[in-house]
Amino acid sequence: MLLYILGMIGIAAFAITGVISAGRRNMDIFSIVLLGMVASLGGGTIRDVVLRMDSVYWVEDTSYLWVAILSSVFAFFGVRVIENRQQVFHYADSFGLALFTVVATERVLSLGFSPIIAITMGVITGVAGGIIRDLLSDRAPLVLGKEFYATPAFLGAMLMVLLEQNLAWHEYNSIYATFLIFILRILAIHKGLYYPSWLLFKKRDS
User: Start and end of every Glycine transporter domain (predicted)?
Assistant: First the structure.
């Protein structure tokens, strides 16, 4: 039940980022709602297709689809009164990244897949929606920047696997993993948390 609720919150968070991102391109309400839906449902859709699930999760349970639609419509009208939309975008994106990664990791584990597959699909689910959103709104994907983005998702997914393997009885494992991802992303945004220079690939000066 907890993971179901977290999944719904993640859908809403990413839908909001899709609307804010689309708003920069002066799209109409239908295009914006569509982008919000793609951003919020895209990662999980890719996960279910790759794992060859019997049906995509939002087709099986249309509550996810309705949350994506209603959140996008609400955000379309609600963000107009928000002065610092960029900050809302980053916080919602960080929250959505954390929730999607953890929920996907737990879901894949529960289906009997190996830890490495769970971590991989957790990261893919977490970042894929944002990549699709950024490409469709003509902006550089956050995951391709030098600040921490995919790394927090990886560390959170790995923590989720370790907790489930050693403390499977603990009902708040998902909360701990979500908190780790969210905090690392906030530090990356506000404190300039980057990789050390020796881990970055820099082109040579010609």
Answer: 5-77, 91-164
Q: Considering the domain boundaries, does residue 82 fall inside one? A: yes
Distance CA 167, CA 123 (A): 21
Q: How far apart are CA 134 and CA 18, in angstroms?
A: 8
Alpha-carbon separation of residue 128 from 83, 133, 144 (angstroms): 28, 9, 12
Residue 32 located in a structural domain: yes
Q: What is the pTM of this model?
A: 0.87
Domain of residue 26 covers: 2-199
Express each pLDDT in 82-133 by its tens digit: 777 888 888 999 999 999 999 999 999 999 999 999 999 999 999 998 898 8
Would residue 204 count as lying in a domain? no
Closest CA to 173 of 12, 9, 3: 3
Q: 44-97: per-residue pLDDT in tens? A: 999 999 999 988 999 999 999 999 999 988 888 887 777 778 888 889 999 999
